[in-house]
Design brief:
By secondary structure, the chain is mostly helical. It has one domain. The protein is about 65% helix and about 0% strand. The protein contains eight helices and no strands. Helix 2 crosses helix 3, helix 2 crosses helix 5 and helix 2 packs antiparallel against helix 6.
């Protein structure tokens, strides 16, 4: 696969993600009418609406995981082809995450009671964050990648009582002890 072909496939997947999200009725930017670089208030209605938020590290970790798994499963596949696969997986997740069923499932979690879904801006930049994690995993030794992922999980977990691990656990099964801890933030 040439670099041009790989980049074209990645771009096409992100455009497809954008179009599907638009067809699902997602807003382009925050309904507040502004675009902010960072939303640090975990309870803000602008969470998942702006460029970066506390869930951005989760998407970076997605990229690290996708790189590792695809490297192990498809070691002879060109890296750009694996990146395109990772973007396809992330785009599919971003579309699923913004479906009515998943939005409703998230609302049952302690920190996501007011969740309305992502803006298209936030969703596309979540995919870019995943690509960043993929690149980090490609460039760094696996030990450093794992250490960075753990550091991100622990730091975000300590600061806002949520992270990728807790998000997955609470999505699969609600744990009263975790929910009680999360409500303290």
């Amino acid at each position: 696969m040439t670099a041009r072909t790989g980049c074209a496939i990645v771009l096409a997947l992100v455009v497809a993600q954008t179009v599907v999200l638009h067809l699902l009725g997602r807003v382009w930017i925050c309904t507040c009418g502004t675009v902010r670089f960072w939303v640090g208030d975990i309870h803000s209605a602008e969470l998942s609406q702006q460029i970066l938020d506390w869930y951005t590290p989760s998407h970076v970790i997605h990229g690290m995981i996708f790189y590792g798994v695809l490297h192990l499963l498809l070691p002879r596949t060109p890296v750009l082809a694996r990146l395109a696969m990772a973007v396809g997986i992330e785009a599919a997740w971003e579309i699923a995450e913004n479906s009515p069923w998943v939005i409703e499932a998230y609302r049952k979690q302690a920190l996501a009671a007011g969740y309305t879904g992502d803006s298209i801006l936030n969703s596309v930049l979540d995919t870019v964050a995943m690509m960043t994690g993929f690149a980090i995993a490609r460039l760094l030794p696996w030990q450093a990648t794992v250490a960075l992922a753990i550091l991100a999980e622990v730091t975000v977990g300590a600061l806002v009582h949520d992270n990728l691990t807790l998000n997955i656990l609470n999505f699969i099964h609600r744990f009263p002890a975790i929910e009680a801890w999360q409500k303290r933030v």
